[in-house]
Amino acid sequence: MGAPPLLQLTGVSRVFGQRKALAKTDLSLSAGQCVALLGHNGSGKSTLLRIAAGRDRPTTGRVSFDGMPMNENDPRVRARVAVVGDTAACYPDLTVREHLQLVAVAHGVEDAEEWIDHILADRLLSEHARSLPGALSSGQLQSLLLAAALVRPRDLLLLDEPEQRLDPGARRRLAELIAAETESGVGVLLVTHHGELAAAVASRVIVLSEGRVVADGKPSKVLSTGPDGTTWAAAAERAR
Predict the structure, then answer these.
(1) Are the C-beta atoms of 141 and 110 separated by less than 8 Å?
(2) Could you tell me the domains of the chain?
(3) Is the Cβ–Cβ distance between 31 and 186 less than 8 Å?
(4) 182-210 burial, b for 16+ CB within 10 Å, e for fewer?
(5) Apex CA 95: angle with CA 91 and CA 101, to 5°?
(6) Are 152 and 109 within 8 A, CB to CB?
(7) φ and ψ at 32, to 5 degrees?
(8) Is the sign of the CA dihedral 2, 185, 182, 158 positive or negative?
(9) Structure pTM?
(10) Over the chain (240 residues), what is each successive 10-residue block's mean pLDDT?
(11) Could you tell me which of 48, 111, 84 has the C-alpha nearest to residue 186?
């Protein structure tokens, strides 16, 4: 028998008032695997990610992480699950380095300064180590969020549109980063609009439209052979 899933969502749905943001959905993610969620704005993919992270409770269904209920406030979950989301998570009065120092201290990282120097260089932020978030470009802010996830231990990495505001070179480095994470045994759940990124890093692609799964399978099956992701986009449009 194989190892149990690192992340398991069973029959999860989410309703806000009269609006069904997410129909019943199943998802499993193993250690060392990347699953990509594709879809247009409002398709339900970010809702699914928040539920997977334990930041929102599903209306129906259950979520488990390594066999235990997913709860964002559980110290065991907080120690092992890293989430990269909104740039609003940055503290306006802390420098880039101070952000990473705070995360490192919170997670008991040893030899933190040497590791922080490595992460700053990896994310091309060394020259901005003393900068406040307000002085950074949108792409640099995104790199800071990624750096904060990399500076801490993690078994599960949840990424909400990490390619946003990144130039082509930075997106290539992002793909290399995700590949390195999975190779090291980290499970990655990736929300993205970018079919080319999903094709490069994911072993499974799920396409959502209006809260429903409209395609699910290997990237070669779900995505077009071109770089623009026309197959998943067409499937999403047909489902509307």
Answers:
(1) no
(2) 7-91+156-239 (3.40.50.300)
(3) yes
(4) beeebbbbbbbbbbbbbbbbbebbbbbbb
(5) 90
(6) yes
(7) 80, 10
(8) positive
(9) 0.89
(10) 83 93 95 95 93 93 92 88 81 95 93 94 95 93 93 95 87 94 97 92 95 93 60 53
(11) 84
